[in-house]
Amino acid sequence: MSTSISSLGVGSGLDLSTLLTQLETAESAPLTRIQTQATSYTSKLSAYSQIQSALNTLKTTSEKLSDPGLFNTVKAGVGDTSILSTTTSSTAVAGNYALDVSQLAQSQSLVSVGQASAKSAIGNGTVTIRFGTISGGTLDAATGQYSGASFAPDTERSELSITIGEGTNTLEGIRDSINKANAGVTASVINDGSGTPYRLVLTSTKTGEASSMQIDVSGDSALQNLLANNPAGTQSMRQTSVAQDAKLKVNGIDVVSASNTVSEAIQGTTLNLLSTGATSLKLTTDASVVSTAVTAFVNAYNTLQSTATTLSAYDTDTNTGAALTGDQTLRSVLSRVRQVLATPQGGDANSMKVLSEIGVSLQKDGTLSLDSDKLKSVVDKDMTGVAALFSSATGSSAGYGKQMSALVTELSGSGGALAVATDGVNATLDDLTDQYNAMQDRIDATMERYRTQFTQLDVLVNSMNNTMTYLKQQFEAMSGASSS
Length: 484
Fold this sequence. Notes:
Elements: H1 16-27, H2 29-66, E1 74-78, E2 84-88, E3 95-103, E4 109-111, E5 125-135, E6 138-140, E7 145-147, E8 150-153, E9 160-164, H3 171-180, E10 185-191, E11 198-204, E12 212-219, H4 221-227, E13 238-241, E14 246-250, E15 253-257, E16 261-266, E17 269-273, E18 277-285, H5 287-311, E19 314-315, E20 320-321, H6 328-342, E21 360-362, E22 368-370, H7 372-381, H8 383-390, H9 400-412, H10 417-483
Helix pairs in contact: 1-10, 2-5, 2-9, 2-10, 5-7, 6-9, 7-8
Subunit structure: Homopentamer.
Subcellular location: Secreted; Bacterial flagellum
Family: Belongs to the FliD family.
C-alpha cells in the first residue's frame, strides 16, 4: 500500500508532512549558501561591466584627443551668407579670402512646341540623347536657338537611345519613357493655357557647360519636329535655360566649376554658391573644438573615478561592502590609469609636459579639476603645444590621448587585467551552477528516500493502530462476558 504526499500522516495521525518540509529546508541549506555566493559574483560581474563602460568612454575621448587633425580644425566665417556657405574638412588651413561670384552654374532646359493633347499619338521612332559643350555661333534670345554653333560631345558620358512606339508615343508616354531610362534628363509636361497648351520640357540633371543636350530623332517626321535638337543643326525645341558653369574669383584667381558646389578651390574647403556677388571668407583655427574635447576627457576620467568609488564603498553602519570593495583588479586598473596621467611627456625644454600646464590638475580624491579659463587661454596661444601634449605623429606613442587609449585597450583586451578578472568571475559562476545542480540532484534523491520511508512508517503505524483497536475491542468483549 502506498499513499501520496498530500495524504502523508493520515494513516498514522503523525504530522509527517510538516516534518518532511522541515527536513527539506535543512537539506536545502547548502543551496542557499551557493545562491548567496552566486549573487555576490553576479554583482561583481555587473560592477566590472560598469567599470568597462566607464573605461570605454574614457578611451573614446582619449582617441579624439590623440588625433592630430583635431588641433587643426578650422571654422569658416562668411561675410555675406546670401552669396555662399561653406564646409571645411580636416585639411583646411587658416586664411583670409576675397570671393567674387560672377555666374552660377545651371542646367540646360528645352521646351517643345505646343500640342493640343498630352494623350494623343504623335509618332514613332528612336530618340538619342547626348551631352556635351556648345561653342561658337550666336544664341537668339527670342527663340532660344543657336546659329553657326558647334557641339562637342562629352566623352565621359555615354549617349542613350530610347525607343518610342505604340503606347509611348504621346507626350505623357515620351515623358515617362525618358524618365524611366535614367538618361540624365528629367522630362515633364506643362500646360501653358494656350490653344495648344501641352509642352514637353527636358532638363539636364547636371549643371555645367558640358551638360548641354543634343537630341537626334530617327523615325516619324512628327517625332522629329517635336524633339530634334542639334545646336549645330536642326533645333525643333526652344532653349529656356542655358547650360553654364559657375564662375568666380578667389583672391583674384579665376575659378570655373560645373557645379555650384565648388571643392578645393580653397584647400579643405567646399564653397556652396547661392547667388552672385562679392564677399569675404575667413578661416580660423577652431579652439572651441579642442576645449570641448579636453573637457570631455576630464569628465570621462571623473566618471570612472566616481563609478569606482561607489562600487568599492564600505558601509560602516551595516558592516557591508559594495560589489568591488577591496577588489585588487579595480585597484590595479585605477592605479595604472592615474600613472598615465601623472607621467610627464617628453620633448624639448619648451614643450608642455604635464596636464597642469593647460589647467587640468589631479586632486587628492583621485579626480581631475579643470580650469576652463586657463585651458582656453593656452589653446588660443599655443595650439601646437597642446596638440603635442595629447597627440603625436603615426608610429609614436607620445601624448596623453594616445597613451590612455592604448592603456584601456590593453586592460580590456584578451589577457588584460579587467578581461582576466571578468573571465574568472564567469568561470566561478559556471562552477557554482554545476555545484547547485549537483546539490539539487542529491537533495531530490534524499527527499524521495524520506518520502518513501515516511510512507512506509505511515502504513506501519496505521496497521498497528488497526491491530490495537481490534485487540481492544476483543478484550472489551471478553471482559463483558466474564462479568455476566
